[in-house]
């Protein structure tokens, strides 16, 4: 049998290699930005069209390339960055594999213009599918200007695999920011389809972070500095009270390169111990400088993990220096999270005896009764105000008549503060009580046949969820016009997400009067929420969307309704007066699916008289 092994032709080998280096337009941006930085650029402009699918262009003012180097740069394993194997251990550049340009040129139409300081004229090269199609002398400024067009034009399967423009743009912004955070001494800009997303002047680390994330970031940063033999640490952590609902703003840079490290992340989280609310994540921007010899340089170009020689020492140093900073900047002592307002004793009452709370149970209460009975039972308890009957009623128009009870759900949420201290005060005017609260978490009511225990947060979430869904899909919600529009700062990543869900959000009653790079202007909000809640609500919403990117309109609507309902619903730990309790119960049993929360958790449980009897047997 004749020999059958052959060497792959270069363009095939390059295409295969490209599959590893270039997953999406964002990978092209990362590789080209790194090349410009390695070329000592001080100004780098990024221009993209259609989320980079049509065009990625990077213009730098770096050292440029000679004609020969320009030709060579597209060869595989062609690099100016290492000459000897030993160089690998003292690597100061980002690239060293000589793979990126060869890979990119295998799967796109590439145009390169480049000129060195000393050359009179520059070189213009066109490469398509690894083939040089033209080479000319050209007039071009010092530096390199590279256009990557029609990515994956010759691999339709890869092209079809790309996500929506919004998703791909988000990846690009991520890569762009990671590089920009690490290099404040270089000016960067990013333009997408003609509109400028970032314009970052040369500055210091602190200002760069603020320029990228916008607005009030500066006030939120606490500096961290440490210089030891093993590592030099500089950078910032976010004050704990500004901790995010998502891990969005967590950045480690090692020798100017963005990396991910679950282990070091743990060190940061540990240094915040006791200072953070549950499920919130501290922001951090930490720059670590270590001896290049002490890290494993052979990391894959697309990977962001890294191996350190002395991870344990690094962990300890990081943790103690952040703790030190938090203490030094007096962040720790002023914190008082999770204060239980129910425990706040009004000053005047300090020396009085507590009255035992009065609990009256309506034996006839049955949540399964029909609407009319409900109304008859609870109409006596109406100590709430109907502020804007016309408006909120229209909010529920189109819903079942059973839900059309005299409830302004806003009262359920916001009057809860007022009942604080009742335990000590003049006895509340006794209204007809058929429910009571246990541990400010459960609402207990009696049934003809036993006891009903309802999780207040889940119940309210179910109620709001069904209302929101209806608003989004069937009728538009009424919105309350704000006297002064709210201006909220978001990072550009978040702004991109907001744009994606803007239409659905407007169906719930939000009115966005302007959305630009870092600022969102809101002139109307749903009647169900108050102005002060808007920011936290949107932040949670974006965090939820980030975790769970919905792939179609239907699941987007569902996620939106779930997230908003979850944020807006009364928390466990909130004291509810009896009217509020009853309203939640009423509305719950008017829902289509009262037994389950939108997150498929049990909303209530019952204990029958039979079961009780057994316990006393
Ligand atoms: P690597 O960065 O690993 O060396 P690349 O394929 O990314 O490999 O680039 C190959 C070579 O092309 C680089 O080593 C560098 O000499 C040259 N080069 C690439 N981009 C630029 C640029 N923007 N300015 C100057 N030289 C560049
Ligand atoms: Mg490179």
Automatic annotation (TrEMBL):
Q: Which organism is it from?
A: Christiangramia sediminis
A GO cellular component entry from the record: mismatch repair complex
* SMART domains registered for this protein in UniProt: DNA_mis_repair, MutL_C
Q: Which family, according to UniProt?
A: Belongs to the DNA mismatch repair MutL/HexB family.
Domain named MutL C-terminal dimerisation is located at: 434-576
Transmembrane stretches, start-end: none
Function of this protein? This protein is involved in the repair of mismatches in DNA. It is required for dam-dependent methyl-directed DNA mismatch repair. May act as a 'molecular matchmaker', a protein that promotes the formation of a stable complex between two or more DNA-binding proteins in an ATP-dependent manner without itself being part of a final effector complex.
- Protein name, per record: DNA mismatch repair protein MutL
Name a Pfam family for this protein. HATPase_c_3
Alphabetized GO MF terms: ATP binding; ATP hydrolysis activity; ATP-dependent DNA damage sensor activity; endonuclease activity; mismatched DNA binding
Supply the InterPro entries for this chain.
DNA_mismatch_repair_CS, DNA_mismatch_repair_MutL, DNA_mismatch_S5_2-like, HATPase_C_sf, MutL/Mlh/PMS, MutL/Mlh/Pms-like, MutL_C, MutL_C_dimsub
Keywords on record = DNA damage, DNA repair, Endonuclease, Hydrolase, Nuclease
Domain DNA mismatch repair protein S5 residue range list: 209-327
**Gene Ontology biological-process entries:** mismatch repair
């Amino acid at each position: 049998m004749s020999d059958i092994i052959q060497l792959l032709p270069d363009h095939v080998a390059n295409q295969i290699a490209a599959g590893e280096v270039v997953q999406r337009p964002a990978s092209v941006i990362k590789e080209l930005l790194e090349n410009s930085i390695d070329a000592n650029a001080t100004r780098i402009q990024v221009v993209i069209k259609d989320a980079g699918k049509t065009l990625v262009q990077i213009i730098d003012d770096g050292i440029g390339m000679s004609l020969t180097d320009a030709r060579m740069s597209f060869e595989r394993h062609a690099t100016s960055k290492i000459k000897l194997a030993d160089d690998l251990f003292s690597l100061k550049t980002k690239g060293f594999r000589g793979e990126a340009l060869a890979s990119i040129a295998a799967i796109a139409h590439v145009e390169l213009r480049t000129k060195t300081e000393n050359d009179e004229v520059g070189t213009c090269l066109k490469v398509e599918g690894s083939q040089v199609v033209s080479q000319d002398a050209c007039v071009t400024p010092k530096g390199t200007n590279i256009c990557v067009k029609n990515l994956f034009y010759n691999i339709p399967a890869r092209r079809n695999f790309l996500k929506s423009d919004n998703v791909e743009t988000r990846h690009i912004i991520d890569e762009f920011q990671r590089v920009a955070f690490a290099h404040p001494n270089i000016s960067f800009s990013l333009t997408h389809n003609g509109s400028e997303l970032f314009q970052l002047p040369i500055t210091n680390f602190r200002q760069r972070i603020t320029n990228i994330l916008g607005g009030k970031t500066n006030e939120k940063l606490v500096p961290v500095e440490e210089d030891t033999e093993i590592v030099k640490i500089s950078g910032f952590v976010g004050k704990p009270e500004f901790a995010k609902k998502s891990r969005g703003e967590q950045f480690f840079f090692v020798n100017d390169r963005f990396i991910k490290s679950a282990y070091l992340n743990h060190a940061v989280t540990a240094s915040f111990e006791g200072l953070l609310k549950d499920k919130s994540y501290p922001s951090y921007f930490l720059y670590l400088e270590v001896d290049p010899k002490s890290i494993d340089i052979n990391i894959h170009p697309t990977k962001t993990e890294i191996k350190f020689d002395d991870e344990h020492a690094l962990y300890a140093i990081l943790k103690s220096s952040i703790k030190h900073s938090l203490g030094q900047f007096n962040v720790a002592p002023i914190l008082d999270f999770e204060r239980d307002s129910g425990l706040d004793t009004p000053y005047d009452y300090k020396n009085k005896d507590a009255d035992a709370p009065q609990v009256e149970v309506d034996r006839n209460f049955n949540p399964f009764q029909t609407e009319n009975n409900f109304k008859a039972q609870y109409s006596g308890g109406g100590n709430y105000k109907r502020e804007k009957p016309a408006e909120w009623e229209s909010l529920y128009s189109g819903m079942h008549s059973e839900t059309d009870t005299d409830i302004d759900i806003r009262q359920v949420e916001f009057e809860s503060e007022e009942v604080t201290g009742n335990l000590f005060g003049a006895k509340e005017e006794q209204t007809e009580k058929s429910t009571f609260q246990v541990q400010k978490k459960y609402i207990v009511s009696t049934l003809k046949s036993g006891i009903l225990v309802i999780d207040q947060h889940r119940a309210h979430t179910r109620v709001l969820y069904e209302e929101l869904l209806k608003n989004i899909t069937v009728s538009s919600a009424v919105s309350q016009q704000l006297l002064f529009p709210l201006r909220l700062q978001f990072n550009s990543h978040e702004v991109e997400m907001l744009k994606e869900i803007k239409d659905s959000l407007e169906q719930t009653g939000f009115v966005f009067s302007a959305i630009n790079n870092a600022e969102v202007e809101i002139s109307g909000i749903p009647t169900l929420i108050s102005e002060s809640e808007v920011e936290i609500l949107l932040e949670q919403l974006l965090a939820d969307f980030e975790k769970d990117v919905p792939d179609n309109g239907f699941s987007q609507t569902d996620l939106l309704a779930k997230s908003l309902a979850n944020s807006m619903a009364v928390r466990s730990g909130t004291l509810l007066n009896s009217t509020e309790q009853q309203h939640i119960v009423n509305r719950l049993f008017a829902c289509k699916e009262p037994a389950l929360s939108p997150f498929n958790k049990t909303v209530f449980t019952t204990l029958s008289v039979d079961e009780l009897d057994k316990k006393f047997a």
